[in-house]
Each structure stands twice: as C-alpha cells, then as structure tokens.
Specification:
Blueprint: E1 2-7, H1 14-24, E2 28-32, H2 33-43, H3 46-56, H4 63-76, E3 82-86, H5 92-100, E4 105-112, H6 115-123, E5 125-127, E6 134-136, H7 163-177, H8 179-186, E7 190-194, H9 199-209
The structure holds BIS(adenosine)-5'-pentaphosphate.
Length: 210
C-alpha cells in the first residue's frame, strides 16, 4: 500500500477527483477525512459527538480525534493499493503524525483553485448522503434534478456549505493547511494540478502527476 495526499482548498475538487478515479481504477482507494467524520456524526459515536460542533463552525476537529480514524484505515489497508488520502493531513502536526505512522507517502498533489471560484463551487454542491457521490447544480448536474445517478437517493446540501462557514473554512485553509505545500515541496513529492479546468481534465492531470 502507498499513499497519495490530496491538498487543496475546501471545494477545490479533492473529493470529486478522488471519487472518480477510485471508481475507475480498482487499485485506487478514496479515503476522505470529512466523510469519516460525517459518518461518525451520523452514527452518533463519541467521536462524532465531539467533532460535530467543530465541523459546523468550519473549524478543524482535534488532531488526535481524526488521527485515530486515519490510523485505523491505514492499518486495515494492505496489498497493491494506492490510497488517495483526501483531507488529512490538514496542518503540520497532522503531517508529522502521518510520518510517524510510517505510512509510505509517494506524492502530495495540490489541486489549485483560486478563492473566487470556491464560493460558487460550494454554493452549487449537492451530495448523496448514501453513496457519497458528489454533484454541482451547474458544473456536474445529476441526470434527474436532486436525485443521485448512482443509487437514486435524494441529494442533500452539507450543513457547513453556507457562505459564512465557507469563509471561515478558507481562513483555516490558508492559515493551517497551506503550510503543507512547502512541507511536501521540501520533501520533493509535491505536484500541482490546475483545478479550474473541468473535472475530466483535472482527473487526467492528477493521474499523470502520480
Ligand atoms: P472536508 O469534508 O474534508 O471538507 P473540505 O476540505 O472543506 O473539502 P470539501 O469536501 O468542501 O471540498 P472538495 O475539495 O472535496 O470539493 P468537491 O470535490 O466536493 O472537511 C469538512 C470538515 O471536517 C472540516 O471543515 C473540518 O471541520 C473537518 N475535518 C476534515 N478533515 C479534518 C482534519 N484532517 N483535521 C481536522 N478537521 C478535519 O467539489 C466541490 C464542488 O465543486 C462540487 O459541487 C463539485 O461537483 C464541483 N467541482 C469539483 N471539481 C470541479 C471542476 N474541476 N470543475 C467544476 N466544478 C467542479
């Protein structure tokens, strides 16, 4: 097993690209820290109860809480698999925790999208609560309005996708997550992909980068 980290602002397309590539390539596994946390919130676990308030406010949950979840997924992933790790690490402390796990990180790919595009991306996002497929009302609409193409479930809007919380999430990204770009550049494993060019192009460029 090896790991490719996805870096990028909220709404830059990390989940869309990783989800698409994992659906098309059986050796790629998409692991999203946000989906793990939303799953814990939905199940009402102790971790979910602790994480919920941070997430609704657009703040990072405590490092130890998310690191425990990621450690479990890393431990259970074996064989000829590339894990597309989306949303973790989110700060330098988490990057060091990942290093200490001994996880073989081969690339960190930055999906680069300017902030002015992010608000529109997130305002139009619709998500399937069942199979996690992602859509956008204009850029990537489902075949039937409001219904998941994959499993037929009614699409929902994430609680943290309101404009005020998105502003806060962008501040957190620039302050806490952006330093990871230099961290992985210094290790010689940073790749950058233009995230503004449409989902097909971004997915192709991502695959070429790794
Ligand atoms: P998380 O779920 O990780 O959210 P995020 O990083 O803010 O990222 P998003 O899921 O919002 O965006 P994305 O880049 O996946 O974009 P998407 O593909 O959907 O985290 C949520 C919360 O959990 C955090 O705020 C925090 O509280 C907590 N958390 C998570 N991880 C944590 C950690 N490690 N430590 C602490 N706390 C943590 O695309 C967005 C939209 O754009 C979609 O509608 C899509 O259809 C559209 N789109 C995508 N690509 C394109 C394209 N190329 N062209 C046009 N439209 C596109």
């Amino acid at each position: 097993m090896n790991i490719v980290i996805l870096l990028g602002a909220p709404g830059s397309g990390k989940g869309t690209v990783a989800g698409r590539l994992a659906a098309e390539h059986s050796n790629l596994k998409h692991v999203s820290s946000g989906d793990l946390l939303r799953g814990a919130v939905a199940k009402g676990t102790a971790a979910g109860k602790e994480a919920g308030a941070y997430m609704e406010a657009g703040k990072l949950v405590p490092d130890a809480l998310i690191a425990t979840m990621i450690k479990d997924v890393v431990a259970e992933t074996t064989g000829d698999v590339t894990m597309l790790l989306d949303g973790f690490p989110r700060n330098l402390a988490q990057a060091k925790i990942l290093d200490e796990m001994g996880a073989p990180v081969t690339h960190a790919v930055l999906i680069d999208v300017p902030d002015d595009i992010i608000q529109d991306r997130i305002a139009g996002r619709r998500t399937c609560p069942k199979c996690k497929a992602g859509y956008h009302v204009k850029n990537l609409p489902p075949k039937v309005d409001g219904i998941c193409d994959v499993c037929g479930t009614a699409l929902t809007i994430r609680k943290d996708d309101n404009p005020d919380t998105v502003k806060d999430r962008l501040v957190v990204y620039h302050q806490q997550t952006e330093p990871l770009i230099a961290y992985y550049r210094d290790k010689g494993i940073l790749r950058t992909v233009d995230g503004t060019t449409g989902v097909d192009n971004v997915a192709t460029a991502f695959l070429e980068a790794i």
